Amino acid sequence: MSRATRRRIGKGIQIALLVLFSVWTLAPIVWIVLSSVLPQAALTSTPPDIAIENFTLDNYRGIFGEDSELLIGLKNSAIVATLTALVSIALGSAAAYALARLSVPGGNRILLLVLATQMFPGIVVIIPLFIVLSRVGLTDTHLGLIIVYLSFVLPIVIWVMKGFFESIPVALERAAAVDGASTLQTFRLVVLPIAIPPLFATGVFAFIEAWNEFFFAVIIAQTNAKTAPVVLAEFSGQYVSLFGQMVAAAVVASIPVVVLAIVFRRFILRGFAEGAVKG
Amino acid sequence: MAEIELIGVEKRYGDVVVCSDVNLHIGDGEFLTLLGPSGCGKTTTLNMTAGLDEVTAGEIRMNGQVVNDLTPFERDVAMVFQNYALYPHMTVADNIGFTLKLRKFKKDEIKRRVDDVAEVLELSHVLDRLPRELSGGQQQRVALGRAVIRQPQVFLFDEPFSNLDAALRMRMRVEVKAMHQRLGITSIFVTHDQEEALSLSDRIAIMNGGKIEQIGTPEDVYSRPCSTYVARFIGSPQMDIMVGSIEDRGGRATYSVGSTSFEIPAGAAPSTHGAVDLGVRSEHIRIGQGGTPLKVIVVQPLGSETYVTLGDADLTFNLTARVPGMARYTPGDLLDVSFDPEGLLFFDRESGRRIEADGALA
Which letter does DSSP use for residue A119 in this model? Predict the structure, then answer.
């Protein structure tokens, strides 16, 4: 077999694998989008009747009707996810910078402790957490959810940002010191502007985590602070399942995340690459 | 402008001593180089002088005032770093003007001074570019510009040319020397390149294991190295040091190494005899003017001169002589070798210190 043929076969296998992977990832999404624009009857017939004249926006009208639960859920999710993202990058980057650059007593132990919080499954902490939150009156509030979400996104933000800060040459900060910058000025004028890509990446990550989270939300915030995933689940009731509306709501709920990912794709890729690889 | 003194300066991290008992006096407007291999403590000494690393013991004074607890900014030093340390998100103009911006200079004043500096350093056409869009030489000049713009008391250079190729390094050397001659600002320059040190400095401090081994003018350290360490570190090709002994043969001093012996010119031998090391630089080795026959081992023509490496039959030692022009010798040739009397340096075997004519150690 000539070299060219071998290369062509290799290329063919590569493309086949990529196609397989794309189908594997995209098929459920396509299925959900299709389901959301088809009436239940067309969907449940075998094979599913996906003729273009069956397409309808009824499911979408249904979920955005009067007193739309979904709208309230989306609003709650937006508040909780945005604040989780903002607070986690503010606190996380400051903590990461301190751990990376300043001599923090017991710094390594703090880092391990931070990491250790990631090792407990949610089911283990949910009951004590619920008790604590209800004692301080934070169940079913935005703040309660934000605090819970911060506890599991902050460790990741801290670790990624610490890796990134350590990859910045120390000489840069020393140069700033020689130029006359205080520690705070160095952080604000030299380090932070360089750290924008990883900050965006970790911020988007925190947003998505908080936006998608279901388990804690369903237990801690059942009424007033109910988030979109909880509302989605409620479409599947004990007696009736509004499958069409549920998938329509799922499509709507995934739009912000998809938009975020597309808009910040460049930052996210660069951010995680820079955070992961030490320079 | 400033006069700098380091008095008994020490730096340790826990039990690890990086520098100890560093004593230096750098005169106003002087250009001093800290020279040594990596890990000898030269950069740490520079960082302590800058105020970037704290001293564990000792005092640093500038113009007589103790500055141990002052920040780099308060010491009014400017520094050029090994990897340039340019702010990657700022344009060239912002990089150069950053220090003035921090000092709250007016915008048009900053612009005027940045333009002036850029013109001198031939950076005017790249002021709007980011550092990553510049060549290595341009980046280095931006780093210089950032140091020059505020007319500091002291310039500190931390191996600024080590990332540049040989030709560029040569050019930057000329630029730095010209800049020092023009501005006359006290400068401390750290390098492991002995040629750089010799060509730039008023004085050189050679460091070894966190201590200063010798301080002197380039002429001093080259011609009168205080030890085999300095002798080997300075000069290219490296000084040849033979391990033999001085013997008295019928009233004439000879140096024996292996089965070979050289006659020591009258007056060149120290008063002590016995087992000592003999060092001689390539330019003090004479070929074909009588003396001891040695075999040619390797010939390296370099254009303007030729390095001829010679040795004895058992290869117990070798010597590299420098011959003008393109000398045509063939390996295996036998050549007579003798030494210039002023080029012979004797070293104590145990301590490595140079032995003066009166037998005392340098």
Answer: G
Q: Which of A169, A179, A194 sits opposite B98 (nearest CB)?
A: A179
Encoded tokens for A55: 């397409």
Q: What is the pLDDT of residue A131?
A: 94
Contact B81 A174 (CB under 8 A): yes
Which comes out higher in pLDDT, residue A102 or A27? A27
Assess B73–A contact: CB distance below 8 Å, yes or no: yes
H or E stretch including B188? strand B186-191
Question: Which of B342, B326, B173, B322 is CA-nearest to residue B237?
Answer: B322
Residue A276: per-residue pLDDT: 43
Task: Report the alpha-carbon distance of residue A15 to residue A49 in Å, rounded.
Answer: 31
The span from the CA of A10 to the CA of B75, in Å, is 63
Q: Which helix (H) or strand (E) holds B319?
A: strand B318-324
B79/A185 touch (CB, cutoff 8 Å), yes or no: no
Decide if pLDDT at B93 tops 70.
Answer: yes
Please report which helix (H) or strand (E) contains residue B20, including its range: strand B16-26
Interface contact A175-B88, CB threshold 8 A: no
**For A243-263, what is the mean pLDDT?**
88
Read off φ and ψ for residue B215, nearest 5 degrees.
-120, 135
How much is the pTM?
A: 0.79
pLDDT tops 70 at residue A27? yes
